[in-house]
Amino acid sequence: MPFGLSNAPSTFMRVMNQALRPFIGKFVVVYFDDILIYSVNSELHIQQIREVLCILSKEKFVAAAKKCVFMTPKVLFLGYIISGEGLQVDESKIEAVRQWPQPKTITEVRSFHGLASFYRRFIPHFSSIIAPVTECMKGSKFQWTPEAEKGFQKIKEQLTTTSILVLPDFSQPFELHSDASKVGIGAVLSQAGKLMAYFSEKLTGSRVRYSTYDIEFYAVVQAVKHWRHYLFHREFILYTDNDSLRHLHSQDKISARHAAWSAYLQQFTFVLKHKAGVSNRVADALSRRVNLLSTMTIQVPGFDSFRDLFDSDTYFSEVMAAVRAGEKSEFLMVNGFLFWGNQLCVPDCSLRLKIIKELHGEGHVGRDRTL
């Protein structure tokens, strides 16, 4: 095929799809000259490799041996590492992110934004975190703000500590957890408690003025739309901490907006379950942990400094070591701070009393829930 023709890529893609059409969706994924063959066992895999190579030979395509990998439990494909465990980010890309310097121009911001957006499915509440960075791409004059720097560092940290996202098992029911805040909406798709993907969206325009009920409702609709290819024609469980959504169909009058959203959701078969905010830990984390850290940073002078005290703390030093070793799954790190579920862990320091007073001032919810 001649080089330089504007329609060459689409023509080549069409030829590859036509040649491998009998196998696509069964045991082959093809993207231009990248062909992925997946199988349930070794014997079947050898047979399917032979079938693909025969088709390529028949169509006069040549597979370069040095560019092929056979019989591997893990493979790098289109920027992702795919294995039996699930989906992971490419380690070489993560190293590039880890070493990424502070952007100095709009072009450099766009480059970082593009790479980060490619892996957004691994980052909870991605849209809200990267919003200040996105603002730096607007206008003709470049200005790197303190908020953009915080978002930039947070995205780098999140990308370098991502989890494995499991592949869908269509014999098991899907679970969708949604949550929202005044900044954005978030959702988690899972199966049997194992994460499959994150979704997030920043609230803009008129949506910023939505009521809490509308934002929660909007979060559900957008999450279902985002994963409709998984959820359509399958029963799934929808968890939300907005109990009023369960009574939508019993209302005598609803707004045009609610009617449209309700009509869309009626295409799907799901069981709506209310989950109190305190127990909806996974989805709430998308909006509440970050908000807590932001509030404490403003209200408590020197708050950022105590993240360095965990390793020397009598109790939390052992917890930190266990978290880094992949143990203590009930604990997690967020921007260098240690959390137990949604609760911030505070090492023994002079700031502990000040932080407790600030949290106590938010409402009298009792000792256990405060701490």
From TrEMBL:
Query: Where do the Reverse transcriptase domain residues begin and end?
Result: 1-82
Note the superkingdom of the native organism: Eukaryota
Output the SUPFAM superfamilies linked to this UniProt entry: DNA/RNA polymerases
Looking up Gene3D superfamilies in the UniProt record yields: 3.30.70.270
Question: PROSITE patterns, alphabetically?
Answer: RT_POL
Q: Which InterPro entries match?
A: DNA/RNA_pol_sf, Retrovirus_Pol_polyprotein, Rev_trsase/Diguanyl_cyclase, RT_dom, RT_RNaseH_2
**GO molecular function terms noted in the UniProt entry:** catalytic activity
**Keyword terms:** Multifunctional enzyme
Report the PANTHER family cross-referenced here. PROTEIN CBG26694, PROTEIN NYNRIN-LIKE
This chain's protein is named Reverse transcriptase domain-containing protein
Q: Which organism is it from?
A: Acer negundo
